[in-house]
């Protein structure tokens, strides 16, 4: 049974009042009861040092599981916390809002003040709080219940903090934690006046952030339920080496780029929101949108892993991971023809529409993004010519295609009043890294449907040109030139170009294209 803080305050109020109908109420507060017991002196000092004596001496109701004896701060590790924050976590780990009674059959999960779910269960007739036995319990106070533990309760690591607990995870953890950053939060800080025109603070508050959390999941969020596949060091290194093959940059680029993007790509296959997985689907979807078929089955992504429970999910410890780069790096590169301001490098055409793309409002036409581009030839002797930048190719094989649109596809769909014509193009793929050109001449375009014409199958790029944050496509090293080549005498052909997009489909594991 999940016990939530707000529910405890409401559900326990009537029972608490009824319990004392006609019976003298306890006069000691929780704080007074704790300080009256010598075996709780260390815990009492900790409570007072962090201001919790005021809460436990107030009229607000709490339940405290007070550890007897000394406090072991090493039980709270794995997070970038100051010593003060560690001590405060010890306090919050032993207090919950509301009144929670113990019994010989108790079987609850309690959410304590730090948000951790803590099992409160009976073992052999003795209540245990996250594994720590209670030697005295149900000590009634005027503002709650006190249970005294034999020893300090274990701190439940969340997925993020547990990564630091296992030396086998040090390689992936070093990478993840390298993005940690402490950010100053002025609205939570205490202003102390203005010096030389600038606000100064007497108490500055900093919050730990990590840019990866917004991409793969907030692994430190106690409200979430994650399943994270975590490779041990040798396995992580093997995966990085495997993925680096697809990030083979030229010698002119920083050598760290291959490691940077290889590591980041692997993460796309490792984190899953457990609650969002459909019970009726054969696929699990990672937080990065990658799909994996029956990962728990033999041969699946999770095969052979060891499950480790955390306060916000589980870690699956993996000595080996059955992961092909194709399962992550299978995204198509799509250059929409209408995005001429971004991708069009050079061109020769008559700009009759002032570079306005054709919008197709009709549904189910096969045109991607509902736009295509018409490039009109400049005269009767020369067809239209365009050259597009092809960004972010990896050092792997691609099927390269161009999606052409027929002349009679208008805003409102197919027009019977417009005659269609065939097309013919020459295509030139330029690679500035290798200085090589792939030339394909006389490609026929039927012109009667939205059609993908495959220029090359399994074309291998020797170098990676993956720069997702590039400011301009002018420096893209891969480009595709398309030239309309029909002769003037070929009246059943158009010298104009009707292009929806350029498409590159990775064929990492062979030919992945299903089009004919």
UniProtKB/TrEMBL annotation:
<dbReference type="InterPro" id="IPR036378">
    <property type="entry name" value="FAS1_dom_sf"/>
</dbReference>
<dbReference type="Pfam" id="PF02469">
    <property type="entry name" value="Fasciclin"/>
</dbReference>
<feature type="domain" description="FAS1">
    <location>
        <begin position="27"/>
        <end position="153"/>
    </location>
</feature>
<dbReference type="InterPro" id="IPR000782">
    <property type="entry name" value="FAS1_domain"/>
</dbReference>
<protein>
    <submittedName>
        <fullName>Fasciclin domain protein</fullName>
    </submittedName>
</protein>
């Amino acid at each position: 049974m999940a016990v939530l803080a707000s529910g405890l305050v409401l559900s326990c109020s009537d029972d608490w009042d009824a319990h004392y109908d006609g019976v003298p109420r306890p006069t000691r507060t929780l704080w007074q009861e704790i300080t009256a017991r010598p075996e709780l002196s260390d815990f009492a000092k900790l409570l007072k040092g962090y201001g919790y004596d005021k809460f436990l001496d107030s009229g607000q109701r709490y339940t405290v599981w007070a550890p007897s004896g000394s406090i072991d701060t090493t039980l709270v590790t794995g997070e970038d916390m100051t010593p003060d924050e560690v001590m405060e976590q010890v306090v919050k780990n032993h207090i919950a809002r509301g009144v929670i009674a113990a019994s010989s059959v108790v079987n609850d999960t309690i959410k304590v003040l730090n948000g951790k779910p803590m099992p409160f269960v009976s073992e052999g007739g003795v209540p245990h709080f996250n594994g720590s036995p209670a030697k005295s319990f149900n000590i009634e106070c005027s503002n709650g219940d006190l249970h005294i533990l034999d020893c300090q309760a274990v701190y439940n690591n969340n997925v993020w903090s547990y990564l630091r607990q296992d030396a086998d995870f040090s390689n992936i953890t070093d990478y993840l934690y390298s993005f940690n950053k402490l950010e100053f939060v002025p609205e939570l800080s205490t202003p102390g006046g203005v010096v030389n025109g600038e606000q100064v603070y007497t108490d500055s508050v900093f919050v730990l952030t990590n840019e990866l959390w917004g991409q793969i999941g907030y692994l430190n969020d106690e409200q979430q339920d994650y399943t994270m596949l975590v490779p041990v060091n040798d396995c992580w290194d093997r995966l990085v080496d495997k993925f680096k093959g697809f990030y083979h940059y030229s010698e002119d680029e920083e050598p760290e780029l291959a490691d940077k993007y290889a590591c980041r790509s692997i993460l796309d296959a490792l984190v899953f929101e457990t609650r969002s997985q459909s019970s009726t689907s054969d696929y699990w979807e990672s937080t990065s949108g990658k799909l994996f078929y029956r990962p728990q089955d033999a041969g699946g992504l999770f095969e052979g892993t060891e499950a480790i429970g955390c306060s916000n999910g589980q870690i699956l410890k993996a000595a080996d991971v059955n992961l092909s780069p194709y399962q992550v790096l299978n995204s198509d590169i799509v250059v929409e023809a209408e995005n001429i301001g971004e991708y069009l490098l050079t061109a020769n055409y008559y700009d009759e529409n002032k570079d306005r793309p054709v919008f197709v409002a009709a549904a189910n036409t096969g045109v991607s993004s509902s736009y295509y581009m018409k490039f009109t030839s400049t005269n009767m002797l020369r067809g239209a010519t365009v050259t597009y930048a092809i960004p972010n190719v990896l050092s792997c094989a691609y099927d390269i295609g161009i999606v052409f649109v027929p002349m009679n596809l208008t805003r409102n769909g197919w027009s019977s009043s417009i005659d269609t014509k065939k097309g013919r193009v020459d295509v030139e793929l330029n690679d500035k890294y290798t200085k090589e050109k792939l030339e394909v001449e006389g490609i026929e375009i039927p012109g009667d449907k939205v059609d993908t014409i495959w220029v090359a199958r399994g074309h291998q790029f020797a170098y990676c040109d993956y720069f997702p944050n590039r400011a301009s496509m002018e420096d893209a090293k891969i480009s595709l030139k398309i030239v309309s080549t029909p002769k003037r005498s070929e009246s059943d052909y158009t010298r104009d170009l009707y292009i929806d997009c350029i498409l590159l489909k990775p064929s990492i594991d062979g030919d992945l294209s299903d089009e004919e």
